[in-house]
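Here is an idea for our session: we take a single protein and study its fold together. Once you have written the record down, we can walk along the chain together.
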Amino acid sequence: MKDPDSIEFFKHPSKPKHRQYEALRAYYLEGLSQLEAAERAGYSIYTFQALVSKFQNGRIDFFPTPTPGPQRRRVSDFLYERIVSLRKSNLSIYEIKDILDKEDLDTSLQTISRILVDEGFAKLPRRTRRELGLTDKGTLVPPASAALDFDDLSEHSFECQVGGIFYLIPYIVETGLHELLLDTPFPETSRLSRTNSVLSMLALKLMGHERLSKVTSYSLDTGLGFFAGLNVPPKTTATSTYSYRVDRDAIDGFLENFVSGMTERYPQYYKGETINLDFHTIPHYGEFSMMDENWSGAKHQRLKSALTLFAQDGESRMLLYEDADIKNDEASGAIMDFVDHWLRVRGIIDQTLVFDSKLTKYEKLEELDSMGVKFITLRRRGKNLIEEAEDVPEGEWTKVNLKKPKRKHNRFEIWERTRKLPRTKLWVRQLVFMGHGREQPTFLITNNFDIPMETLALHYSNRWLIENKFSELVDFFKLNALSSPLMIRIYFDVALTVVADTLYKLMARDLRRYEDCTPKTIFADFINCGCKGEVVGNEVIIRMKKKATTPILKSMDRFQRSWPVPWWGGKEVRYEWVA
């Protein structure tokens, strides 16, 4: 028995093409007139006449010849061949997708999978984490750090998370840091030069991130590696091991030559009338420590720590010297080590040294005086000194007004006398300060008998600039991060801190309205931005992401010209800005 639905399909066609076909068939084969055929199909006579006309003129094709579809996936030949070549490198579809995304080639996982099936590739066997280049935590294992061959590097691209550090390259070139590294006996490896190793550590220091949790996030940063002339930055173990291979004498010589070169290239920043000196304690929080205990003013207690002496120009606030991990029994003599250093750098000490009473002993003050070195320091308050100050008649006090902006107590009184220091033959000027915001009088002593008492008071008040500097070094450069997975030998870490701070100071002095800003502010407003770099022939083009402060940089001649970079094989860096 025939299916009724099938019979109905032919008796009463519902599809437009089917109705047209049956109407024309009745007209041509069954001998119906146009009117009869039109009425059977449900057409008006005029519609059917138009249908007949179209059929006779070949404008209706009920049985078109099928055209074959595409023989391959609808992707460009370049993308098709790129997918196939990546699979030949034993990469999974997910790895291929990641690479194509980075190359701005948009396609889906399904398309990649179908192309590989069409080409006859079988599924990859399941691989272990080590075979996939992953750690137990699922993070990628970075390749081994290696120096780039810039002679053969005519085409190359990279990205950097903190691309603003490339703004500091002109300053590194100007300071002669590369030439200094070549002349310093720092160690080298078969894969990395001393320049590669030191600049890779300096790059981390310039970013100011705490090493405790940040350093591993840059292990695959090709831009950070390129900054130091490498494919990627060295791993933490290699960096830490290198720092402990560096001899302390080499570090001291490096920093002394660096400061000496700075005084020659930038003499305007080293002409202050005073030099501020002070100790800073770098705490060590490890469970086991062989370090001495030192007083920490920030913690208000004695801690296992590395005692470090810093010297700073009293006017420009540039750091002049550091001496890290001083033993307790050597602390009082540390100032003499600075004097020897500054004599080697400048040949003469014509500035006045300013420091507090805990920096050294009276015997060392006598030794400084015998060398012709002027100093200003505090004298520790004793019962007899306080009683003597309280008995001074009111008429013998001199009223002073420092007129120093932002200082709370500019008006106070001074009483001056000459005194001989205990256990020495040294006579000094002793100035007693009252009404300066403290309950007890302050005693200032100096061997400089020529300058007015107001100037002495002003010089000592500026000593707090070095306290502010310590806050900057701790806050941004993480100077107190002595205990962390990335263990850098303290001598090396402090020396790199001085270099990094100097570079930031140089850049700040060039930035309009940012001349006195801290490194943290410069980093936030200028350095902390991404970039993409491209090597084109003898040129390295750094394309910086625009920020609100970009117009300041674009207005500077320094960033409108190209700079030959010695450790990049003489290739020239050029800056561009993109949205």
